[in-house]
Amino acid sequence: RFGLPRPDHRLGQTHPTVSTRILDRLAHGAITVRPEIEELAGETVRYRDGASEPADLVVCATGYKISFPFFDEDLLAKRIFPVDLGGLYFVGFVQPWGAIMPIAEVQGRIVGDHLIGAYALPDRAQMERDVERMLAAQRRRYVASKRHTIQVDFSNHMVELRREIAAGHERARRRGFAPPLAPAGAPAPFGVAEGNGSAARPAEGSAARPAEGNASRPAEGNAARPAEGSAARPGEGGGTPSRPAPEADVASASR
Hints:
Layout lengths: L21 H6 L9 E5 L2 E4 L4 E3 L21 E2 L3 E2 L12 E3 L3 H16 L7 H18 L9 E3 H21 L71 H9 L1
Parallel strand pairs: 6-7
Antiparallel strand pairs: 1-2, 2-3, 4-5
């Protein structure tokens, strides 16, 4: 009726054209539907059906090509983690049927938990299997084209991410909440393993925070702050130590 070609795929396998005016413009002749362009010959456009016509302007609304030459973009676990490249994370690298902001928020939570050791990735073999299942489902769901390489269904993907958060937290617990970038033998980060006392929060000890000790902050000792001691201010109490300088006592005891 409007000159549009019959789709060669099922409903929902590609992005729909959402417009409140396109059918109106087609009905009034303001837009004319043409087949794909076969050739550009100077100011003449030739179409695949053999027709041609002059054109003043050709607008190429082809989108863009997704390319990461430094890793295989097909091996992107949970659309976040490159399987072959640790320390690199993608947030919002999806094209959802629905809003992208909630998806990016959950992905950001996963990355944040991973960096502090509260979320652990599965092993490489499991990640590769997950990626293959994702790609197979994508091939069944969408038309095979570069336009649908990062497509996700909002509801299904959100459910999958929330399940993955729970699974990743359990893996992290079994592995001792070790951050992915921490050196060997480093303690668990603050806030991850609160249940076992000092081992989970080593920063509270004097060795872990030398800045709190007397050597790195001499101003806390009696020599650096003589005004707090009795000898430095004899006028307070007629020469009698009226302020015994508790800070000086603590500092001297720690030495």
